[in-house]
Amino acid sequence: MPTWLNTELPNASSLVALVTDFYWERDRAGRFTCVEGEAVDAGTIDRAEWLEKTPADLGMGANGRQSWPELQSHVTTRSVRDEIVFWRRDNAPDCYLSISAEPIRDEAGFIEGSRGFGRDVTASRKDFNELRQLRAAVDTTQLMVFAIDRESMRFVYANDGACELIGCDRHQLMTMSPHELLLTDAETLASQYDEVIEAGGITTESRSRTYDGRETIVELHRQAQLVDGRWMIVSVVNDIIKRKRAEFTRDRMSRMYASLGATNEAILRATTPDDLYEQVCEAALTGGGMLIACIMRVTADASRLTVTATAGVNGAVARDLTVPLDPSHPEGRGLVAQCFRECRQQICDDYMQDPRVAPWRNVGAKMGIRSAAAVPIVKAGETIGVMLLAADHPRAFDEEGVGLLNRMVDNVVFALENLEHEAQRKAGEKHIEFLATHDSLTHLPNRTLFNQSLSMAIESARRYRRSFALLFIDLDRFKTINDSLGHEAGDQLLIQIAERLSLAVRASDMVARIGGDEFVILVNDIQQPEDAAKLARTILSKILEPVELQGQEYRITTSIGIAIYPDDALDASSLLKHADMAMYRAKEEGKNTFEFYSAQLESRSLKRIKLENHLRQALEHDEFELAYQAKISLENEQIIGVEALLRWHSAELGEVTPTQFLPLAEEIGLIIPIGRWVLQTACEQNMAWQRQGIPPLRMAVNLSPMQFADHQLVSHLESVLERTGMPASLLELEITETAVMHDVGRALELLAQIKRLGVYISIDDFGTGYSSLTQLRDLPVDSLKIDRSFVRDLSSNITDQSIARAIITMGKNLSLNVIAEGVETAEQQSFLREQHCDDMQGYYFSRPGSHTAFADLVRSHRVRKAL
């Protein structure tokens, strides 16, 4: 008789009725003979309705649903617990009963009825369905979910994912103890569960074992739940062995790379081969996380390998090892000997199972070796030794790791060769160090060394409260050199510029090339900004000196930006940035000059955007106008021509200088329509003057490089001359030397077409480009215009005087007219006249003015007619 219904206890039915909804008894025919309990007292069950009726009479098991358990067969001896019975009631909702039953036997042991108790489980049945749906969802997850009773330390639940990943069915899993899976003892695990209860939840990592004995690593998310007065530990477990292996591989490769780096450092420190071997082994050990690292060299008779250097906890044992190379000897067929003979790397993933290391297994086991790699050391095509690395875990050497080992050995061989040739080694080391910190083309310090020096200069200046200057130098139009003469000529130019910069500074200063055509100079310990300005002027002068490239002389200019520590910045990055900004400001100011950094430069980028927006609308809003400046004969001071100069008066920005908007117009492509407007307006004005009685004068108009590259230039010239009626001989086109030399072949063809129209051609800004005497001789031009940068300091600068004199002489020899622009003083005029320069232009005679002002000037001055 089941213990849960022991009739020998007094008042058993009454006691049972206290803990269930009702107690019942049935006779042999299945009729209820007794029904009592809380359900009867509450009126849920009508005793009178039940007595003498079978469950079927009461509607239980209707429509084929769950029926009352029958124990009437004389062969049935089993008891029934918690079987669900469907009860369809006439005047009340359907419900579900949980029935437990056992047979009632007579004195002979025959069944004469049954008895038991029942519970109304309708509500819990609904909860069960929801729970079943939840369980189905939990079972579909790839995570393992467990519930463990803290008191019994047994599983009470495990989802399908747990069974699948562990490799057993749920019944097998339920028979296991949690500590068996987690590879720990019950007391430790119980202590961990108590910590979870105290904290509410804990996430940890732990080793675990599957049902088939395979070990893995899991991430445990544990939560404590109090259920019916008992603590349940709910564990969500994620098998992270793949992630851990990936992390392990990543960490291992990181250590291998560190080992390679440490090996390279060891190579740099080593002074002898033995010293090299020892340091490489130590680096491989500490950087790569190896158990043992050793290098073996072949003996003179090539019969065996002996340990030359070793590192590791068992280094002393390894140092005494000798490996025979004869394959007939058992030890001679091992990993190391095979590597040497075949001159090929050998990898042992499992030292305890690999048959190649069988003769060495006992030695390896004592050392704790679980995997190993042997790499041949080959110098000049001959195997001279083997590098052996061993780890304390299997499969420590994958393909990438072995590749790093080969690189490590290659580096060792390289160092060996250097050590064997001491002089070459020293030279090689110096060369490597030099290349790391110097530019390979100019041999100046590179960006790396410069940044280090700049940081040291800042620290020193801060400590001793000193100032220093940073000059950022960028060659003007360097790209033109590369494009027109080739990269070899460009490299030669950079070399010569580097030499000139080095000669211009003090021994305490630093000149560095930081990329392309960019140089920087660190000027230590200046007293005032003028010290930096003085150096900048010297550099501008030095760079402007002729440069010989491919047998011809060229001139180049540069733009310099200057930043002062501590006035302009306190850190290296900001100081360099500010000097760079000042350099670009110098370029905007016309190049071949220098500028100091100022805070206003920070806002220049926003101003540029604003300027561009207004520039795009200037033509449409009729904001452009032309100013006219006279050209004067130096011989008799007659007006011999006029140049049309573009001016922009913006309704919002006010007067905008040409140096501000012309480079921008060139950059954004507006120079073509603006240039066409200038040409049209200038020609119209020249004809208007003549109608007013002004003698015919040649009108000079500037062509930008982009206009000169315009394929419609000639046809547009023809169209303008035809529309305005101006003779072609009254039009002078001023084309920059740089634009002409960019593509000499095309320039010759285009200039010839322009000359056939009868237009006068002048080379503007002469001396700032790269034209040679031979090239100039072939150009169909009429005049050379000396750039104002050479005129500015004519009265005091010997170099500028020499340049101006050379240009005038060149022009005379080629029967070209020579005019100087930017003449502002009597001294400049006197020098030019003495050198027999033909004409001049500048503020000394007249400033640019309106068409009316120029007409008044002409009426009051002598004029040499152009026709």
Offer a quick outline of the entry.
The chain is an alpha+beta fold.
Features:
single chain; 867 residues; alpha+beta; eight-stranded mixed barrel; 32 helices; 43% helix; elongated; disordered N terminus
Written description of the protein model:
This protein has 867 residues and is of the alpha+beta class. The chain is 43% helix and 25% strand. Helix 9 runs parallel beside helix 14, helix 14 crosses helix 15 (422-437) and helix 23 (671-691) runs parallel beside helix 25. It is elongated, with a radius of gyration of 50 Å.
What quaternary form is this? single chain
Radius of gyration, in Å, reads 50 Å
How many DSSP H or I helices?
A: 32
What is the count of β-strands? 32
What does the largest sheet look like? 8 strands, mixed, barrel
Topology diagram in text:
Blueprint: H1 12-19, E1 22-27, E2 32-36, H2 38-41, H3 47-50, E3 80-87, E4 95-105, E5 111-120, H4 122-140, E6 144-149, E7 154-158, H5 160-166, H6 170-174, H7 178-181, H8 186-199, E8 201-209, E9 215-227, E10 230-239, H9 241-269, H10 273-288, E11 292-298, E12 304-312, H11 315-319, E13 322-324, H12 335-342, E14 346-348, H13 361-367, E15 371-379, E16 382-391, H14 399-420, H15 422-437, H16 447-464, E17 467-475, H17 478-485, H18 487-504, E18 510-515, E19 518-526, H19 529-544, E20 547-549, E21 552-554, E22 558-565, H20 572-588, E23 594-596, H21 604-618, E24 624-633, E25 639-650, E26 654-656, H22 658-668, H23 671-691, E27 698-703, H24 705-708, H25 713-724, E28 731-736, H26 737-742, H27 744-757, E29 760-766, H28 773-778, E30 783-786, H29 788-791, H30 798-813, E31 817-821, H31 826-834, E32 839-841, H32 851-859
Parallel strand pairs: 22-23, 25-27, 27-28, 28-29, 29-30, 30-31, 31-32
Antiparallel strand pairs: 1-2, 1-5, 3-4, 4-5, 6-7, 6-10, 8-9, 9-10, 11-12, 11-16, 12-13, 14-15, 15-16, 17-19, 17-22, 18-19, 20-21, 24-25, 24-32, 25-26
Helix pairs in contact: 9-10, 9-14, 10-14, 14-15, 17-18, 18-19, 21-22, 23-25
